[in-house]
């Protein structure tokens, strides 16, 4: 196998406090660097360094040099849209679709008003269209997601005789690559929660919400369940691990404000419910996880849930933490099938209270879940889940329908739907998004102003 030059691109912040997309991009770069020369780049900001691969923020001219250097580009989120030269190049392009951002925006943009919300969702769909029309190989996070993206690819004409005849299963076009778990087990390096945070004692029972509070999640049912549970388990504590997202383009969401208001209304804040104002650094999160007793993941019953892959649950598994989850997503099915904790209906605070009590009050039950988790962890180690990508990069190739002139020509009318103006408006829109976020971009689309 020849050593290639691979650029891994993310629009997310690369910093000590990384969110899910950046964490995933980091591990992709780490795994590919075992056999190739890798540069991990972001269109946001970067403050990290790494011996095994280069880490940098890129923009404009930097991207031209990166594109000239690399053989393969691995892209996620808005990165590709922010760098349209990649779309028009002949580089082998891998598109990571693990985050269905258009489904997230159906909820995230709900408070933006009808016109802005429609513009935001349309923008997200168009960004995905251009990626699906150009990608040579695609990654998704679950079999259910794979079905979603196969349908999208079919609608855009990418399921055609050329791609089908190469591989009737389409595995050579799109592979399931879940979010992974680190190879090294977590190590407790400092006291972070019990006996440290005011209001949380050394013997208290900590329920950890291991990530941000987003509009498509349901912290309110979790807070109500703890309000009920404190009557029979006074030592219960619910800790929300992070409120301020490390990417400054992502504002604090309505649901985070509502959660704080509910906690205050029930007189729980500072006694039974706690909010970490910042974002726990990536290299420190294990201390929070290892001091918790249960990890919680509650969400609403809607479309985003069905196709989601809650990355915080992988951290719970990494730390051997019993899990209580709302039903309806892929990882909740894993929790139920492998007895890793408890699964409850959406919005059912009584059922959630009972599931939490079962794990917090019954040491035998919690220990059984931990033993079951230990048997699952190996299935999600990063080297194992990233194997399809490593295999593709060992023998990268352009998609057969994109190198076939006739097949590629038939895709062009569909491509026009994704990029209405190839003269630069979409590039300017990407710059507006980086500067002003979804709201600013949507406002300009609504007012029909040039970005």
- Structural class of the helix and strand makeup? alpha/beta
| Sequence stretches where pLDDT stays below 50 over 5 or more residues | 413-428, 445-451
Q: What is the number of helices? A: 21
CATH topology of the largest domain: Rossmann fold
Instruction: Please state roughly what percent of the residues sit in beta strands, choosing from under 5%, 5-15%, 15-25%, 25-35%, 35-45% or over 45%.
Output: 5-15%
Please tell me what the overall shape is: globular
Give the quaternary arrangement of the chains. single chain
CATH architecture of the largest domain: 3-Layer(aba) Sandwich
Top-tier CATH class of the largest domain: Alpha Beta
Q: Mean pLDDT across all residues, rounded?
A: 87
Q: What is the rounded distance between the termini?
A: 45 Å
